[in-house]
Amino acid sequence: MQTETLKEATEKTTHRRKALPCEGDNDHAIVVENLTKDFGNFRAVDHISFKVRRGQIFGFLGPNGSGKTTTIRMLLGLLRPTDGTAHVLGCDVKRYAEQIRPRLGYMSQRFSLYDDLTVIENLRFYGRTYGLKGERLRERIEFAIQMADLKGRERERTRNLAGGWRQRLALGAAILHEPDLVFLDEPTAGVDPVSRRAFWDLLYEISEQGMTIFVTTHYMDEAEHCEELAFIHYGHIIARGSPQHIKETMMSGQVLEISPDDPTRAMTILRAAQQDGRLPVEEVALYGAQVHVIAADVEQYGDLIARMLREGGVDPGPIEVIAPSLEDVFISCVRREEEANGEQIPDT
After folding, report:
1. What are the distances in angstroms from CA 74 to CA 37, 68, 88, 245, 265?
2. Residue 217: strand, helix, or coil
3. Would the pLDDT of 313 be above 60?
4. Please, which pLDDT band fits residue 2 given cuts at 50, 70 and 90?
5. CB of 310 within 8 A of CB of 288?
6. What does CATH list as the number for 252-323?
7. What is the DSSP string of 20-88?
8. How far apart are CA 25 and CA 86, in angstroms?
9. β-strands 181-185, 212-217: how paired?
10. Is the pLDDT at 336 greater than 90, yes or no?
11. Superfamily of domain 6-247 in the CATH hierarchy
12. N or C: which end of the chain has fewer CB atoms below 10 A?
């Protein structure tokens, strides 16, 4: 922020509200037990359970179509669960959705902004929608403009803003009413890496002020910034815990990292060897300019891999055992889940 810290601006506008008309777990902002959602014969979310502590950044990690948005819509009270329970801010969503909703914020990956409106017109619209008016509305709009670093651009149409500014403006609109809990659904999709990093710095500042943040993402590097995670795959929770805990307890095998001069050719050679049994490992995957090979006691395959690559005309480069990344662990969890369910695992 340009003229004052986020903490100072937040303290200036903090508004006290009446307690919600329900009792529940005061330590957790969200408690989900066996939550399920069917759409006809299709089960989008399948008996998932997890908890989100108040004031933390919780990451919901999974590919598109895995059930992340459906879960959020149930937690917001916009979709009625087929089965299971969800308590948000201590209240049963099925019973108290209307009372809870004013205490929640929501930011979709499309940023939910009106392109034809200016920055300040968007903020006024959302502020009035949340029931803000008078001096409180003016204070909160000023807070959002400073937070989004849009001082001097108040009259600019939203369509003309760069992606990073639109993103911060959308976040400002989502928290104008000072919600206790904000849901951010793929908030950095399509945003450049520098803006993504700045956005996460902003989330840390907001979280430090006591707001609970529930963020969905398919970016593994972003998931590392969350205090707690849940991996979701086709409606199932396949791992839960802190990033470090998940990496320490959920990884199947070790990771051998290879830095060949031709990663694509190296992948082709090693995949072929894996498929015909000459290289008996669990996984071969491309990670940028590196290739990761996963297996129990994977170091024993180092010399074999180097020989295979050289015979195929590829310089293997450095080969070393490394700590698994979250992406390694996620792939391992997905493989284990699909094998347990007897599903065919696609070649990726």
Report:
1. 9, 10, 10, 28, 45
2. strand
3. yes
4. very low
5. no
6. 3.30.70.260
7. PS----SSEEEEEEEEEEEETTEEEEEEEEEEEETT-EEEEE--TTSSHHHHHHHHTTSS--SEEEEEE
8. 12
9. parallel
10. no
11. P-loop containing nucleotide triphosphate hydrolases (3.40.50.300)
12. C
Rounded mean pLDDT of 186-192? 81
Burial 231-250 (b: 16+ CB within 10 A, else e): bbbbbbbbbbbebeebbeeb
Across 9-23, 38-52, 113-127, 233-247, least confident range: 9-23
Which residues are CB-neighbours of 65 under 8 A, at least 6 positions away?
Answer: 234
Helix ranges restricted to H, the chain? 6-13, 68-75, 93-100, 119-129, 134-147, 163-174, 193-208, 220-223, 243-249, 263-275, 302-311, 326-340
Does residue 3 register a pLDDT over 50? no
pTM equals 0.84
Structure tokens at 226: 């969350």
Tokens of 45: 């979310």
